[in-house]
Amino acid sequence: MPRRLPEKTRNAKRKLRRRGSKKRYRPSKTALFQMAPVKENEELEVVIDDIGSRGDGIARIRGYLIFVPNSKIGERVKVRIVSTGGKFAVAERLA
Asked: Could you give all domains of the chain from N- to C-terminal order, each with its CATH number?
C-alpha cells in the first residue's frame, strides 16, 4: 500500500502562483455587451505609455488600449478616435 503524504505537502501542490499584472480592460462575462470608455470621433489628450509590435504608440484609458500611429513613448498627444472595438481603439494624431 502506498504511503500517504502529510497534509501540508498534499495541499502545497494545489496552490497556484499568481503573477503580478497590469490592469487590463476586460469586458464582463455576464454582460453581453459593455461600452468602451471612448467613442468614435471623440477628441482626447493622452500620454503614450508603450510601443506596439507594429511600431504604433499605445495609450491607456482605464485599461482600455488606444493605438496611435507615429508617436513615441512619453509624448502627450491630442488624438481623435477613428474606430473602437471590444478590446482596443485606433486613433489618429491631430496637429
From this structure: 23-93 (2.40.50.140)
